[in-house]
# Entry
Amino acid sequence: MNKPYSLLIFSLLLIVGCAATRQQPAIEAASEEAIAKKNTTEYNSKAVSRYMDGVLAGNNGDWGKAFLAFQEAALFDPNSASILRSVAEAYVNLGRVDAAILTLEKSIELEPQEKDGYQMLADLYTKARQFQKALSQYEKLRDLDPNGLETRYKLANLYLLLGRIDATIAEYHEIYRLERFKPEILMRIGELHLQTKDFEKAEQNFKDVVDQEPNNEDAYLGLGTTYILQKDTAAAVLLYEQALKQDVGFDKIRDSLADIYTSRESWDDALQLFEGAGEEISN
# Structure
């Protein structure tokens, strides 16, 4: 009679023992996770503390001390891109640009969607006159933030510096849109089209500016230059004469028109041009 009960008790103990054995790894894993989380929190708090020490030192101009603090913070939190960017800033202020570049590249690997790393790296390459590398970083930054005006302007300048006029014009068209169609941007586009001898587009750009700003003397000069470069001096003369009727204060246009009259040896026209201006001003 006792054997069945003994067997039952043994079976129950075996089941409970197996269950306990199966649960043990989960308990151990949970414990390890808790310990790891605690350690991570502890390390991050130390990273923040040393990072703030670095910020204070940097604000006081002690970049050697700031560098050591940022480096220690990076040891506690090696996956923090923002700490690495601060390390890079310290490197720059200590004159170690190459080390700063390597550090920024690592920060970008950690946070490829963060704009600050690209911005800092592009600026460093520009200062080092490594324009092609700077261009690459600004292009990545533009891809992250297509509406970033500062990036667009820097890209336009770099494209122009590298002789890529078509790319420069494309950037200025985007700038024109982002700047809410400011006439001065359209003027710049017209000047670039003159450089590429795309007179048709240049002419249209300057005409558009004149329509927007009838008192913009430079727009008339740009349009007149377009005619002159196409050897249509008569059109330039007509344009300048009409512009002076509109505003006698266009001194640069008067000088340009006088140059044309002089080159043609039209002395009477040149004399009348300045006499007429004097009478208009006196009136």
Remarks:
- Confidence is low (pLDDT under 50) at residues 1-42.
